[in-house]
Design brief:
This protein is an alpha/beta fold. It has 11 helices and 10 strands. About 40% of the residues lie in helices and about 20% in strands.
Length: about 325
């Protein structure tokens, strides 16, 4: 079932969550063990992140420096198929412009269509380590709106090879990302929402937001989106803080603010367990307020951890 149909046809608010594929050489069964307790709580869909290839410079035994391409987390498409086969849940694989040509993206979409996967999340992706700014591949896309357009054309049976006749149309539901605190590359919040509107006009069906810790930012973001004519569902994305390191890593990695009240509370905690519990409590209160104010669902970023998400979901839904 398409995510947009789940949103419109589910009578009560629901939760979804996001997972990352195992590292190269990792064990998929450990991932199953991590997500099975959440699967038992009946989320209607799961997002699966995609991680582009990276370039590293490594010293060989002869002392020379070699440039190599590294794929740290392969298997997103296969993982999506494996999860759908194993569990009664829809999957939403991420498609990322970074590191891919339009041809490669079309091939991925064809594979997903053959697997009867109807949902995708269309993202631009971030600059790779060592890049100051995002650089698209030759023959690729600089903006996720262009990927959205490609998916919509496939849904109309229009492939990159315009010599095809009687090509089969795909049937993808398209999600895109939104930023309550502005994408770090946007000059201001107004232009950021204008860019988001372009993704919706290109054919996106719904929005999932970047994580945030102050609900007022989500409510303001939704108001501004509606004022710009964005009418699609906007699902808030949340991540419970679980370690003091998050005070440094999350703002730096995701361009978000940690409220002063939350920061002070974390710094007063006397143990890692206290911090983890505080993060759960904060996320529970965020979730309850968001749902009370009309959010259609809550999307949780698990980052490979699930026990805190389990406790939150059991208390909220």
């Amino acid at each position: 079932m398409k995510v947009i149909d789940i949103i419109h046809n589910t009578k009560h608010p629901f939760f979804s969550f996001e997972i990352i594929p195992p590292l190269r050489g990792g064990n998929i069964h450990k991932l199953y063990e991590s997500i099975e307790p959440l699967i038992q709580l009946a989320p209607p869909f799961i997002n699966i992140t995609f991680h582009r290839d990276e370039v590293e410079y490594r010293q060989a035994t002869d002392g020379s420096i070699r440039k190599i391409t590294v794929t740290k987390r392969p298997g997103s498409v296969a993982l999506a198929a494996a999860i759908m086969k194993r569990y009664p849940v829809e999957v939403v694989p991420h498609l990322v412009c970074g590191g891919a040509t339009a041809h490669q993206l079309e091939n991925d979409l064809i594979d997903l269509n053959f697997l009867d996967i109807e949902n995708v999340m269309a993202l631009r992706g971030d600059a790779i380590p060592g890049e100051r700014y995002f650089t698209p591949e030759p023959g690729g896309y600089a903006h996720s709106r262009d990927l959205v357009r490609q998916i919509k054309r496939l849904n109309q049976g229009i492939y990159l090879d315009d010599t095809l006749t009687n090509a089969v149309a795909t049937n993808f539901c398209i999600g895109v990302a939104g930023y309550p605190e502005k994408h770090h590359e946007a000059p201001n919040a107004t232009s950021d929402i204008e860019y988001l509107k372009q993704k919706i006009d290109a054919g996106a069906d719904y929005i999932v937001t970047q994580m945030f810790y102050d609900n007022r930012k989500y409510f303001t973001f939704v108001e501004k989106c509606r004022a710009q004519g964005i009418e699609v569902p906007i699902i808030p994305g949340l991540k419970p803080i679980s370690t003091s390191k998050h005070l440094d890593t999350l703002p730096r990695s995701f361009n978000i603010d940690i409220p002063e009240e939350l920061e002070r509370a974390i710094r007063h905690c006397k143990s890692p367990m206290e911090i983890k519990q505080l993060g759960i409590e904060w996320c529970v209160q965020q979730s309850l307020e968001l749902l009370a104010q009309g959010a259609p669902a809550i999307h949780y970023y698990s980052m490979g951890k699930s026990d805190n998400i389990q406790e939150i979901v059991k208390r909220v839904f």
